[in-house]
Amino acid sequence: MEFHVGVISGDGIGPEIVREAKKVLDQVGKKYGHTFNYEEILMGGISIDTHGVPLTDEAIAQAKACDAVLMGSIGGNTATSPWYQLPAEKRPEAGLLKLRKALNLFANLRPAYLYNELREACPLKDDIIGDGFDMAIMRELTGGLYFGERETKEVDGILVATDTLTYSETEIKRIAIKAFESAMKRRKKVTSVDKANVLDSSRLWRGVVDEVAQDYPEVTYEHMLVDNAAMQLVKDPRQFDVILTENMFGDILSDEASMVTGSIGMLSSASFNDTKFGLYEPSGGSAPDIAGKGIANPIATILSAAMMLRFSFDLDQEADAVEAAVKQVLKDNYRTIDIMPQHEADRATVQQVGTAQMGDLIAQRI
Amino acid sequence: MEFHVGVISGDGIGPEIVREAKKVLDQVGKKYGHTFNYEEILMGGISIDTHGVPLTDEAIAQAKACDAVLMGSIGGNTATSPWYQLPAEKRPEAGLLKLRKALNLFANLRPAYLYNELREACPLKDDIIGDGFDMAIMRELTGGLYFGERETKEVDGILVATDTLTYSETEIKRIAIKAFESAMKRRKKVTSVDKANVLDSSRLWRGVVDEVAQDYPEVTYEHMLVDNAAMQLVKDPRQFDVILTENMFGDILSDEASMVTGSIGMLSSASFNDTKFGLYEPSGGSAPDIAGKGIANPIATILSAAMMLRFSFDLDQEADAVEAAVKQVLKDNYRTIDIMPQHEADRATVQQVGTAQMGDLIAQRI
Ligand SMILES: CC(C)[C@H](C(=O)O)[C@@H](O)C(=O)O
Ligand SMILES: CC(C)[C@H](C(=O)O)[C@@H](O)C(=O)O
Predict the structure, then answer these.
(1) Domains of chain A, with CATH numbers?
(2) A35 burial type by CB count under 10 A (0-12 exposed, 13-18 middle, 19+ buried)
């Protein structure tokens, strides 16, 4: 089959890690008889440098016309004034929010699990890790505080800034369905996170999720307050399967969950609307400090490409092959610098490789 | 000297742990020649049961008339309908928000540190703990999303709920000053946490905190995005001294930080306005599952009483004595059940005691 893949290489390490994901996809194409046609789309700092804005309408149209989009990372700000004082149209991340909205990508799925080979990198003690954990955050991505109306105005000579957090029944219902559907293919548990003891939006959230839950009697379902969830992720991550939550809580908790695994360079992410289209990207950032050095870990991006094969192209066998190749490369003791063992003694047992070599090693195992 | 202490025993384990704090305060009084007069104030579930609301205006007036208030914990809901469907006036936590506002308690200080004797309870690996960490969260407590206007309405037959997040320059400035003042008495570092890449309120926050920082040239000052802060607390808690943040981020991060220490039963908290008055309470919750069993850890409440001595009554020597007594009791190997060693082998080295016995042991060491 032939697929039209939009590619947003972006800034920082983005171009390097995306290159390796394409390498692996091409190997999948060769082996299984598919063709992936790539179309580069400008976004973020590089788009500001080229077009003066982080995302043009043409770029949005390009992305919409693709079967799926693979992204590196957005960052890279070339302006000289303090970044947070810049108007939105000059901040690279603004492109990301605009793209999510334009493509209606309301569901963000971020798996966070522990690789047995990388237990040592996990910040948690061995008794807490136990025989490992494997959770997925389903974050609402186009509503709430990040997309509410905002305003900064002067009242009696004093600046006052307001952001608004709005959710409708419709928005909550569709993300809840995604979470329960996802749980049905996993360990059949959903933990819905909110702050229903304070927020109106959270009380509506609970009510709607309660209703959706009734359609999934096989799924174990619970509520958790966000402050407690932030604690439980550290105390006992094994208790979680799918965590369902709104936009900002999901932003915070998914990053915390990634860090709890100890290897954010291994974690992929996917954003969906109600079609087969998806936007796939690594969980980590643009890491400008190591950009261009050829040492960034491409695995999260390669696993994001695997998610694309599975969810947008229905190529389960091919996705399995990529995931197996990643596991094999770890078993074969290859590591990028970010996942090298901490202790001197353990270092001798593995071989440190760069970005391109890691891509080659994974492609060879497809 | 004579002090008038309001006591909100509250629900769950509240009455048991407050009793031990009073025991220790009375011992301080005996030794140093002070009198603490206590006045019980009803709030939370017990106030709902007695007066039908979680906090009466009379209770607020009582609290206002005290030199300081010591609180156990609020929870305990006797209603039969699902709790989040209850109107605010029937939810116990609502009393807490009302009290904070009525007393203008805009600054919440929560220390989170590792007791060397309790390293084993810390969920983090030994290399991350290093020689320990000691941070304090300064959380804005009367503004932002938890106190904004909210509304749930029907739009074209669909329920839509909105909460609003507002901060003024004035509100940000006063909490920033508290954070920098606190840092000056500690390791002179402030990390201000926001989401300035998205929120207007966070951009105002940064601007105002930047200005306040100029008055404290000795303090090392940095910004951190909230999603990154949630990661850094797990990855490297040693980097933090004072974390300054708004209400909701502070709610989430202070609970995460407590859990990172591994012993939330040891952590106190204080809420301030612009006078000497303060509200002092343990960081943990009402723990209804163990209420009445005599096994709850009273140390967090006893340390909250020590903060009261220090900050509201200017009794530094007395506060030091309480803190030293707590450390001594740990060195003497007494533990409540929540801080007992996990491993069988280590258990033989310590002695498990109940709530009242722990209070006695600490009082004896004053
Ligand atoms: C860059 C920022 C707007 C974005 C977000 O918070 O959504 C990022 O942190 C993420 O999680 O993808
Ligand atoms: C009970 C609740 C309203 C409260 C809060 O979130 O402020 C609690 O979680 C806390 O942190 O004191």
Answers:
(1) 1-103+277-366 (3.40.718.10), 111-264 (3.40.718.10)
(2) exposed
As to burial, measured by CB atoms within 10 angstroms (0-12 exposed, 13-18 middle, 19+ buried), residue A185 is: exposed
What separation in angstroms does the CA of A19 have from each of A2, A93, A355, B89? 19, 22, 9, 58
Question: Which are the contacts of B239, defined by CB distance < 8 A and separation ≥ 6?
Answer: B191, B232
CB of residue B227 inside a 6 A radius of ligand 1: yes
Assessment of whether the complete model's pTM goes beyond 0.85: yes
Q: Is A79 on the interface with B (CB under 8 A)?
A: no
Helix A247-261 / helix A226-235 crossing angle, nearest 10 deg: 10
Could you tell me which of A307, A277, A274 has the C-alpha nearest to residue A173? A274
Q: Can you tell me the distance from the alpha carbon of B290 to that of B69, in angstroms, rounded to the nearest whole number?
A: 24
Quote the DSSP letter at residue B132.
Answer: -
The CA B96 to ligand 2 mean position distance, Å, reads 8
Nearest to B25 by CA among B70, B83, B79: B70
Distance CA A11, CA A18 (A): 11
Radius of gyration of chain B from Cα atoms?
21
Cα separation, A169 vs B80, whole angstroms: 25
Chain B residue closest to A162 (CA)? B166
- Measured between alpha carbons, how far is B305 from B212 in angstroms, rounded to an integer? 30
Q: Which residues of B touch A84 (CB under 8 A)?
A: 196-197, 202-203, 206-207, 223
B231 pocket-lining for ligand 1 (C-beta < 6 Å):
no
How far, in Å, CA of A295 to CA of A157, rounded?
51
CA distance A288 to A14: 9
| B84 touching A (Cβ < 8 Å) | yes
Q: Is A247 annotated as a binding residue?
A: no
Torsion of CA A113, A358, A108, A128, to 10 degrees: 10
Q: What is the pLDDT of residues B158-195, one digit of tens each?
A: 999 999 999 999 999 999 999 999 999 999 999 999 99
Question: Tens digit of pLDDT for each residue in A80-130?
Answer: 566 667 777 778 888 999 999 999 999 999 999 999 999 999 999 999 999
Does residue B227 have an active-site annotation?
yes
Bridge-based pairing of strands B107-113 and B268-272 is antiparallel
Q: Is A146 in the active site? A: yes
| Residue B291 is assigned to a ligand binding site | yes
In 3D space, the residue among A361, A352, A355, A357 whose CA is nearest the CA of residue A327 turns out to be: A361
Q: Which residues of A199-216 are buried (b: 16+ CB within 10 A; e: fewer)?
A: bbbbbbbbbbbbebbeeb
**Residues lining ligand 2, Cβ inside 6 A:** A 197-198, 227; B 93, 96-97, 251
The answer to whether the beta carbons of residues A143 and A167 sit under 8 Å apart is yes
List, for residues B97-137, the tens digit of each pLDDT value.
999 999 999 999 999 999 999 999 999 999 999 999 999 99
CA distance B310 to B317: 8
Is A163 touching B (CB cutoff 8 A)?
Answer: yes
- Return residues 325-344 of A near B (CB < 8 Å): 342
Which has the higher per-residue pLDDT, B169 or B348? B169
Asked if residues A298 and A20 have their Cβ atoms less than 8 Å apart, the reply is yes
- Cα A18 to Cα A14, A46, A75, A76: the distances in Å are 6, 15, 15, 16
